[in-house]
Design goal:
The structure holds 2 protein chains of 2 kinds. Chain A is about 25% helix and about 35% strand. In chain A, β3 (about 125-130) and β4 (about 130-135) form a beta hairpin. Chain A is globular, with a radius of gyration of 22 Å. In chain A, the strands form 3 sheets. In chain A, strands 5, 6, 8, 9, 11, 12, 14, 16, 17, 19, 21 and 23 form a 12-stranded mixed sheet that branches. Chain A has a 10-stranded mixed sheet with strand order 4-3-7-10-13-15-18-20-22-24, with helices on one face. Chain A has a two-stranded antiparallel ribbon with strand order 1-2. Chain A is an alpha/beta fold. In chain A, α3 packs antiparallel against α9 (about 175-185), α10 crosses α11 and α11 packs across α13. In chain B, the strands form 2 sheets. Chain B has a 6-stranded mixed sheet with strand order 6-7-8-3-9-10, with helices on both faces. A 4-stranded antiparallel sheet of chain B has the order 2-1-4-5, with helices on one face. In chain B, β4 (about 55-65) and β5 form a beta hairpin. The N and C termini of chain B lie far apart (about 40 Å). Classes of the chains: A alpha/beta, B alpha/beta. The interface of A and B includes residues 424 and 432 of A.
Chain lengths: ~475, ~250
C-alpha cells in the first residue's frame, strides 16, 4: 500500500508545480467541439486573412480528412477528433508587458519567464491556447529589419513574404497532422532575419495549453536570408486535466546560403497530451541548421526534426533528448536528407526511460545518388532506469551514393551498481545518485542550452526522478 | 572519539566466503595498515565496511561507536563518518567534479544541521586543497573520474577525503599507480589529517612502500580472510624483507 501510494505521488507530483489552471471565463471566443469546413472558414474570418490562406486551410482540411491515421510509431487510435476544441481566444494581443492580464503574468512568474524577459529583453512571444497574447521585439532588432511576430500578425503585415515561403518546406498534405495544422493553425511565430544580420540574443517563444480539450496548432515559419544567424528557443507546457489534449505544431525553417540557425525546444507537457509535431528545414549552400529538441512529459510524442541539405556545403545537426516516464511513449528522432554533394550531418539522440515508460529512437538518414563525399554520423544512447522501462531504436539508413562516409553507433546503458555505490559512499542518497547520473547523461545536451533553460531543464529532470528509487 | 570495531566478521560474495573471522578496532587519530598478499580479502573487507550491496555479511558485526552499521546504506555510513578511498573509482560521465563534490559536502552538512556551503566558499576550499595535493586547476571542470590517469584517480580520492573530512577513512591500495613524489604528497596529507583532524586511517596495501611516508601506529598482516599477526612499524619492515611466505605456509598448515 505504502509503495503504491508513493508511486502514485511520484507520478502525480511531478507536475504539481505546473498544475495551475485557470477558468476560461475571460476568454473572448470559444468554439464548439469538432472540425468541419465552417470551423476552418470561421477561424480564417476572425483573423481577417487573405483569401489564399483561407483556401490553403481548406486544402489542408481535405487532406486531413482523407488521410488515414498513421499506424506506425506510437498508438494514436484513441484520439477523438470530434471532442477537440479547435479555436479559443483568451484576450486581445498585448504589445507591452503591463497590458498582459494578471493570471497570465502569474503563470510566467512561476515558470521564470519574466527573468528570461528581463535578461534578454529580446523577443518573447507567448501563446495561450490558440492565440499569441504577448509579444515584443527589442527596438534594436526592429531597426536591423528583423521580423519577429506572431504568425497571424506576420501574415497581416508581410503577406507576400509569408506567401512566398509558407507551406513550401512542409506541404499541406505532408502527413495527417501537418494537414490538420494547416487547416486550423493559430499563433506560432514568424521570423525573418535579413541578409548578413546576426542576432546574438535568442528569440524566445513560449507555448501553453491552458484549457481542457483544446487543441493547440501553432505554426512557425523562420526564414534566414543569406549570411544571417539566429537562435530561436521555444518552451512548452500544459496543466494536467482529466481529459486528453492535442498539440500539433508545424515548424518550417528556410536557411538561405551562408546562414546559420539554431532551434531549441524545451517542452514539458502534462502526461495526457498528444504531442505530434512536424518540424522540417531546408538548408542551402553553406548554411547550417541545428535542431536541439528536448521532449519531457506528454502521453505520446512523435517528433522527428528534419533537415534537407539541398546545396553544397550545407550542414545539419539534430540533438534529440527524450525522457519517458510512467505511461509515456516518446517516439522521437531525426531525419536528414543529403541531396547535394559535400554536405555533412550529425544526429545525436539521448533517451531515458523510467517506470514503464518507453523511449523510441526513429531516424532516417538518406543520401541521394550523386550526393558525393557526404559525411554523416548517427549516435543513439539510451539509458534505462529500472527493469520496467523500455527503449527501442529504428534507424533507417538509405545510401545511394558509394562515396558517402556514414557512421552509426547505438548504446543501451543501465545505471551501474558501482556508480551508485561510489556516489552513495560519498553521502548522496540513492535517489540523488541516480539523478546525478541521469543529469550527467544528458549533459552534452544541457550545455548547449541558454543558461536559464539549462537550469530549468535540470530542475525538470530532477522532478521526473523524484520517487524513482525505493 | 569515534571508533570503528570489526567483530569476528565473515563476508562472502557470490556465495564464496572471502573474509573469515576478522577482528579489528580503529580509533580516530590512529593509523592502521593492513598488509597482505593478493587475494587475501583486503578489498572485500573495505567494500563490506562501506556497505556494497554485493558483499554479504554472513556473521559478525561492524560497529561505529558501539552501534552496528550493518543495516545502514552506504550514504548513511558516510554520514556516520566513514569514507572509502577506492582503488578503482567509478567513472560518472557528464558530472562535473566540483559540482559532485559540493553536492556531497552539502549532503553531509545537511545531516549535521548546517546550511549548504555557497559556490564561492566551496571554491575557496577546493582551490586550497588542490594546491596542497599538487592537482591541476582544470580538475574542477573535468567529469568525475572520466579519463583520469591512475595517479589522478588516487589524488582525486584523497582530495575528496580532505574536503569531506570523515572520522574514519579506509584507503584501498592508494599507493598503486602513484609515483614516489605523488606518494609522498598523498601520505603527508593523510598524516596531517590524522594529526590535525583526528582522522582514523585504515590503509590497505600490498606493498610496504607507502608506509615509509605514512607512519602507521599499527600494522596487521591479513592472510586468507583474517588477521594473522599484528604489531608496530617494525612488522612492516620485516614483511618487506621476508615476504608473506611464512604466513601463507602457516595458514596452509592449519
Amino acid at each position: 500500500m505504502i509503495k503504491s501510494e508513493k508511486e502514485r505521488l511520484a507520478t502525480e507530483m511531478s507536475y504539481d508545480k505546473y498544475n495551475f489552471r485557470y477558468d476560461t471565463k475571460d476568454y473572448k471566443v470559444i468554439f464548439n467541439r469538432g472540425l468541419n469546413e465552417d470551423v476552418v472558414k470561421e477561424i480564417s474570418r476572425i483573423k481577417q486573412e487573405p483569401e489564399w490562406m483561407t483556401e490553403f486551410r481548406l486544402k489542408g482540411l481535405k487532406a486531413f480528412q482523407e488521410k488515414p491515421m498513421p499506424q506506425w510509431g506510437a498508438n494514436l487510435n484513441e484520439i477523438n477528433f470530434d471532442n477537440i476544441i479547435y479555436y479559443m481566444k483568451p484576450s486581445d494581443s498585448k504589445k507591452t508587458w503591463e497590458e498582459v492580464p494578471m493570471f497570465i503574468k502569474e503563470t510566467f512568474d512561476r515558470l521564470g519567464i519574466p527573468e528570461a524577459e528581463r535578461k534578454f529583453l529580446a523577443g518573447v512571444s507567448s501563446q495561450f491556447d490558440s492565440e499569441v497574447i504577448y509579444h515584443s521585439v527589442k527596438k534594436e532588432l526592429e531597426e536591423k529589419g528583423v521580423i519577429f511576430l506572431s504568425m497571424d500578425e506576420g501574415l497581416k503585415q508581410y503577406s507576400e513574404l509569408v506567401k512566398k515561403y509558407f507551406g513550401t518546406v512542409i506541404p499541406f498534405d505532408d502527413n495527417k497532422f501537418a494537414a490538420l495544422n494547416t487547416s486550423v493553425w493559430s499563433g506560432g511565430s514568424f521570423v525573418y532575419i535579413p541578409k548578413n544580420i546576426k542576432v546574438d540574443m535568442p528569440l524566445q517563444a513560449y507555448f501553453r495549453i491552458n484549457a481542457a480539450d483544446i487543441g493547440q496548432f501553432e505554426r512557425t515559419l523562420i526564414v534566414l536570408d543569406e549570411g544571417s544567424q539566429c537562435t530561436y528557443v521555444e518552451g512548452c507546457s500544459a496543466p494536467r486535466y482529466s481529459s486528453e489534449s492535442l498539440h500539433s505544431a508545424v515548424v518550417e525553417i528556410i536557411a538561405l546560403p551562408g546562414s546559420k540557425v539554431q532551434y531549441v525546444t524545451l517542452q514539458n507537457w502534462a502526461s495526457n497530451i498528444y504531442n505530434l509535431v512536424t518540424k522540417r528545414s531546408h538548408a542551402y549552400k553553406d548554411a547550417s541548421v541545428y535542431w536541439i529538441d528536448c521532449n519531457l512529459g506528454s502521453k505520446v510524442t512523435m517528433k522527428y526534426p528534419s533537415i534537407y541539405l539541398l546545396e553544397e556545403g550545407a550542414r545539419g545537426e539534430v540533438l534529440s533528448v527524450a525522457f519517458a516516464g510512467k505511461g509515456q511513449h516518446q517516439d522521437a528522432g531525426a531525419k536528414i536528407i543529403h541531396v547535394a554533394p559535400n554536405t555533412t550531418s550529425t544526429i545525436t539522440s539521448k533517451s531515458i526511460s523510467k517506470s514503464n515508460g518507453r523511449a523510441t529512437y526513429r531516424g532516417l538518414l538518406k543520401v541521394y545518388p550523386d550526393a558525393k563525399n557526404i559525411k554523416s554520423s548517427v549516435k543513439c544512447d539510451a539509458l534505462l532506469i529500472d527493469k520496467e522501462s523500455r527503449t527501442d531504436t529504428y534507424p533507417t539508413i538509405e545510401i545511394d551514393e558509394p562515396t558517402a562516409t556514414v557512421t552509426h553507433e547505438a548504446t543501451v546503458g543501465k545505471i551501474g551498481e558501482d556508480q551508485i555505490f561510489y556516489l552513495t559512499s560519498r553521502g548522496l542518497s540513492e535517489e540523488e545518485a541516480t539523478t546525478l547520473i541521469v543529469l550527467g547523461f544528458v549533459q552534452p545536451f544541457t550545455r548547449l542550452l541558454p543558461m536559464e533553460y539549462a537550469v530549468e531543464f535540470n530542475r525538470l529532470i530532477e522532478l521526473e526522478m523524484e520517487g524513482s528509487v525505493g | 572519539m569515534t571508533s570503528m570495531k570489526i567483530k569476528d566478521l565473515y563476508v562472502s560474495i557470490n556465495e564464496k566466503e572471502i573474509v573469515k573471522g576478522l577482528n579489528l578496532e580503529v580509533k580516530q587519530g590512529e593509523v592502521h595498515a593492513i598488509m597482505g598478499p593478493n587475494g587475501s580479502g583486503k578489498s572485500t573487507l573495505s567494500f563490506a565496511i562501506m556497505g556494497h550491496p554485493k558483499y554479504k555479511i554472513s556473521s559478525g558485526d561492524i560497529l561505529i561507536d558501539d552501534e552496528s552499521i550493518l543495516g545502514l546504506s552506504p550514504d548513511e555510513r558516510a554520514k556516520k563518518g566513514l569514507f572509502l578511498s577506492f582503488q578503482y573509482p567509478a567513472e560518472i560521465p557528464g558530472v562535473k567534479y566540483s559540482n559532485f563534490l559540493r553536492l556531497a559536502l552539502n549532503s553531509k552538512r545537511k545531516y549535521q544541521g548546517l546550511e549548504p556551503i555557497s559556490v564561492m566558499d566551496f571554491h575557496k576550499i577546493f582551490k586550497q586543497e588542490i594546491k596542497n595535493l599538487g592537482i591541476d586547476d582544470s580538475f574542477a571542470s573535468r567529469y568525475l573520474n572520466e579519463g583520469f590517469s591512475g595517479g589522478e584517480k588516487k589524488r582525486s580520492e584523497i582530495l575528496q577525503l580532505s574536503i569531506l573530512k570523515p572520522k574514519i577513512a579506509i584507503l584501498d591500495e592508494t599507493d598503486s599507480g602513484l609515483d614516489i613524489d605523488a606518494l609522498r604528497i598523498v601520505a603527508e596529507n593523510v598524516n596531517k589529517m590524522a594529526k590535525k583532524n583526528n582522522l582514523g586511517v585504515l590503509v590497505i596495501t600490498h606493498y610496504q612502500r607507502i608506509l615509509k611516508y605514512l607512519h602507521p601506529d599499527f600494522v596487521h598482516v591479513m592472510v586468507d580472510g583474517k588477521i594473522v599477526n599484528s604489531g608496530g612499524k617494525k612488522l612492516a619492515e620485516e614483511l618487506e624483507e621476508k615476504g608473506y611466505s611464512i604466513y601463507v605456509k602457516e595458514v596452509a598448515a592449519e
